[in-house]
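Action item from last meeting closed. Structure (400 res):
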């Protein structure tokens, strides 16, 4: 990944040199998100999607309120995974009927909030449906619901598989017809959501998943009420290392156009068709900036110690479920273009050897006080990390 923002050997975010931005924020470490990069990425996705396919933002990727306000003017809806995310989404201009609430283990309180707000509850189990029905009966509010379906297939090339085999996500596809048969009129059935895998960089795999998803949905639609909502999932990945190749959107857009023309529109004319993306929209628009507080030699290895760490960037440390640890791209913000020095280990400030942000990385000569920048930090950073670990203060987030 090549970050475009640079000026006179210094990295910039939103046109502002990182050193000046750090002074403006007042402390390190911090996250900075470039609003223009988000806008451009959404525009690129929209240009690739065919007419009739809407774009929803998965708030779990980055729920920063200022970012949500910005994104709300660019996308067609939100998907949330907690009551906290729901509150943030409802604070934007996005209508409640364009917000969906997915995730296993929704509490009665969360379901009550979602039903009262009028968002679509994506049902993850038969017992969740029973709880929704009980809440609707008690409140007199007819709940909007969709079925999240656990498909009978997996997606090749996905960093995390969310479908196929036994899953805590969704109702098994083979069980859905029986559940639909007993649905009744006490809830407002909207449609289906199928999301089989995430962080996929292979366009052919994503197209295959979309083909098989449509096959499954058309089979289920034959025994369901009219389908007014169809969430095809997403799973679009971003590159995290030099060996990763950026995802090609064009084949995906072409395949969706064919599916809409030949299969979805003729058979599900009332359906609002949605692609749901999170990481792909914001992941490459964010950086994590941390200051060097020490440099030490230990038995032939140079350690550069920074004031951040895995408590803010768990994924960059390799502790977010990765099978093989790979360094996130990083740079020294104030030394762009300088010659590379001997490899160093960039480590955080926590009392654990797991706090490794860069393993034998080649960077310009680093001195105490320099600013280290981790790229690809716009998604699954702060809110996917153990921020309370060792009670260090939370980092600031800024939208530039």
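Sequence:
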């Amino acid at each position: 990944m090549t970050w475009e923002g640079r000026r006179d050997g210094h990295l910039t975010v939103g046109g502002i040199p990182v050193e000046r931005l750090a002074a403006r924020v007042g402390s390190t470490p911090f996250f900075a998100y470039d609003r223009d990069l988000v806008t451009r990425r959404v525009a690129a996705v929209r240009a690739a999607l065919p007419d009739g396919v809407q774009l929803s933002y998965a708030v779990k990727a980055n729920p920063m309120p200022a970012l949500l306000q910005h994104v709300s003017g660019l996308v067609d809806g939100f998907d949330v995974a907690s009551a906290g995310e729901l509150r943030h989404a409802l604070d934007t201009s996005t209508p409640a009927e364009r917000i969906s609430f997915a995730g296993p283990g929704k509490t009665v309180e969360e379901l009550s909030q979602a039903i009262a707000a009028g968002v679509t509850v994506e049902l993850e189990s038969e017992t969740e449906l029973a709880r929704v029905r009980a809440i609707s009966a008690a409140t007199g509010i007819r709940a909007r619901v969709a079925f999240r379906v656990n498909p009978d297939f997996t997606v090749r090339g996905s960093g995390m598989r969310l479908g196929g085999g036994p899953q805590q996500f969704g109702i098994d596809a083979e069980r859905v017809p029986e559940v639909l048969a007993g649905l009744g009129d006490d809830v407002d059935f909207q449609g289906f959501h199928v999301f089989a895998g995430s962080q996929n960089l292979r366009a052919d795999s994503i197209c295959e998943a979309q083909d098989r998803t449509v096959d499954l949905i058309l089979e289920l639609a034959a025994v369901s009420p009219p389908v007014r909502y169809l969430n095809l999932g997403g799973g679009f990945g971003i590159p995290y290392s030099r060996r990763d190749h950026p995802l090609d959107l064009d084949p995906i857009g072409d395949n969706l156009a064919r599916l809409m023309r030949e299969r979805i529109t003729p058979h599900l004319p009332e359906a609002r068709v949605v692609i749901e993306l999170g990481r792909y929209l914001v992941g490459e628009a964010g950086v994590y900036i941390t200051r060097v507080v020490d440099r030490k030699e230990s038995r032939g290895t140079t350690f550069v110690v920074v004031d951040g760490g895995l408590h803010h960037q768990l994924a960059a440390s390799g502790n977010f479920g990765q099978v093989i640890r790979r360094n996130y791209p990083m740079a020294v913000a104030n030394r762009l273009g300088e010659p590379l020095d001997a490899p160093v280990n960039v480590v955080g400030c926590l009392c654990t050897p797991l706090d490794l942000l860069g393993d034998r990385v080649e960077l310009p000569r680093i001195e105490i006080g320099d600013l280290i920048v981790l790229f690809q930090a716009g998604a699954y950073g702060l809110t996917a990390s153990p921020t309370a670990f060792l009670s260090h203060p939370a980092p600031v987030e800024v939208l530039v």
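Note appended to the action item: The longest helix spans residues 203-221.
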